[in-house]
Amino acid sequence: MKKNIFAIWIIFSSCIAQNQKMANSLLDYEYQIVPLMEKYKIPGMSVGISLNDSIVYSKGFGFANIQKKIQPDGNTPYSIASISKPFAATVIMRLVEENRLNLDARIKDLYPGYEERCKRILGYFREEMPEYTFMLENYHPERNDITLKHHLTHTSENAPGDKYKYNGFLFGMLSVAVETATGSKFDELVDSMIIDPLNLNYTASSQLDKSKKVMLDKIALPYNPSDSGFVRADFPNPKLNAGAGIISSVNDLLIFDKAINSNILVSEKTKNLQFQPYKLNDGSLSPYGYGWFTQKYKDQTLIWHYGHHPGSYSALYLKVLEKNLTLIILANSDRLSHDFDLGKGDVVKSQFAKTFLDLFVGK
Question: What is the pTM of this model?
């Protein structure tokens, strides 16, 4: 009996010690990110952390609305920019599981007027917005071997499958292809497959969703830094495509994260495929899978994505698989992502991610 009591006491003491260590790490992270927020000139942000699918931290900093002095919290909605891509990839892979979509289908067969539209947009960029020509100048819509898979893995430029290059514009084309293949609107698929079944009350498939007007009225307003502080910025394009447009909160994203971990949205086999680095034509590995970045850090697997709406919003979604640990940060300026060039595939370049990993994984 005494041995049993002693064993229980050891387990109980160990749990207390682990909980205390986690609490200390959370406080340390908060202590370190507030100066980072000031350094990178972020007016407001919300931070959420989950461990073993339980939210252990959810807090807002700064202002969601500077003029009205409204502070953000875990339920404050933001435009999540390219974190919309994991949502889109979830929908796409679910459709593949249901045999409603084939990733080997050619993009031109599922995108009406595709080749002509690409050439027209590239011409417009060259004439009016030369800084955006990079999105299409190495893309060859006349080719017959560009598939949905190539767009989903950011390998559709030049010779498809030869090289990874992050391109949110080309990823966004997937929503039109999905709509053609299924006969359903992309926002309706996001709603029916993710938002509604998970009861994401602080998430909308786009800023145009009239059914979420009350929630959308509470969106964190976007700002840009100025010499005198911050100036109000314009909202990004409110429409949804596969690459951007979803509005959400850190608490809702952690619910989404739990559903991913639990294989509720797609099967474990499909999830594991999404998390694997995509194999290029020469056998080398890309830093991107099917809708997610993936990399090794020390002995841990990092699955992540970032969001960057230039001049308005930014976001970070970071999973440490072996620890079942997730970090979400949403910000109402682009400065959470602006300086880190995360599209190249190394989340450790983000000071917000690196600080988190140092504390929770180790230096």
Answer: 0.93
